[in-house]
Amino acid sequence: MALKIFEIDSTLRGCEGQIWDRVNGYRWWKNELQEKENGMAEFAEGYKIFGFNRTKGGYVYREWLPNAKQAFLIGEFNGWQNSTPLQNEGFGRWKVDLPNKEDGSPMIPHASQLKVRVESNDGGWHDRVPAWSKLAWQDHTTNLFNGVFWEPPEEKQYVFQHARPEKPENLKIYEAHVGMGSVEPKVATYVEFADNILPRIKRMGYNCVQLMAVAEHAHYGCFGYHVTSFFAPASRSGTPEELKYLVDTAHGLGIHVLMDLVHAHASSNTLDGIAQMDGTDHCRWDPRATTASGTRRSSTT
C-alpha cells in the first residue's frame, strides 16, 4: 500500500523506512486496542479504573506499578503510616478497597492529602503522588506536591447551571492563561478569571476561550509544559469545583472552552510527578499491561 505523502513530497523518500515503521506500529497498536480494549475510546477511559473510584460501599483505589514489590496508601487519614496496603491484582495493577465508615462517610476525609508508597523490586522505597489524582497541593515547607482526595460531599459539589452553547458557525478563539489574568502581581484564580476576564472576552466578540496550562505543573515558570499531575487542574488557581465554575460561567456567556492539555510534555520530576512512579524509568505508559488512560493534545468542554 502506497502513502500519498511520498507523492506530495518526494524528499521524504530518503526516510521512507522510518515512516513506514511508524505507520505499521500505529496500525498494529490500533488493532491490538480494538481486539483487547474494545477500541481507542474505551482504552482512553483508564480513569474509570485507576485512581479513586466510587463503589457501592465506599471507594476503590488502583495504581499501575509493574515494578512494585509492595505498596501502601499513606496520608493524613492514617498518619502517613504503612497501615493501608495495596493488593497485587496482576499485570502491574495494585488496588485497595476503602469501605465507608459506620456513619457512611468515606474512610478518607474529603480534601485530605496522601501519597502512594512503593517498595520496588530492587529494594528502593518511593513516595509518589497517585497518577490519577484529581488535585495536588504544594507543601510549602518542602515545595513538593501531595495528592489530594478530592471527593466533596454532595452539598459542596459544583452544580452546572448552563448547558454547553450550540456549535457556532465560526470560532473566534481567545487564548488565555488563568494565572496571568490579573493586573496585580499575583497568580489569578479561576473565580477571578470567570468574574473579571470572561465578560471582557465576551464584549470583544469572542465565542471561545482556550485556556493554557490547565494541568498541574510543579514549576510555574514552565507555563504548564512540564505536567506533573495529568488529571488535576493547576491548584495555584483554585480547586476543581472552581474550575467548573469558570467553565459554567463561560457557557452562560455563550463561550465555548478549550483546554490545552500538553500531556506529551511530562515533567521529569519523580517526587511530585509520575516519572519513575514504580522505581523504573520506563513505567509510563505501556498499554500492553493495562488500560491506562491514553492522552490527547487538547480536549473540549
From TrEMBL:
Q: What is this protein called?
A: 1,4-alpha-glucan branching enzyme
Q: Where is the Glycosyl hydrolase family 13 catalytic domain?
A: 198-269
Q: Which CDD domains match?
A: E_set_GBE_euk_N
Q: Where is the Glycoside hydrolase family 13 N-terminal domain?
A: 50-133
Organismal lineage: Eukaryota, Sar, Alveolata, Dinophyceae, Suessiales
Against InterPro entries, the record matches this protein to:
GH, GH13_cat_dom, Glyco_hydro_13_N, Ig-like_fold, Ig_E-set
Which species does this protein come from? Durusdinium trenchii
Record Pfam families: Alpha-amylase, CBM_48
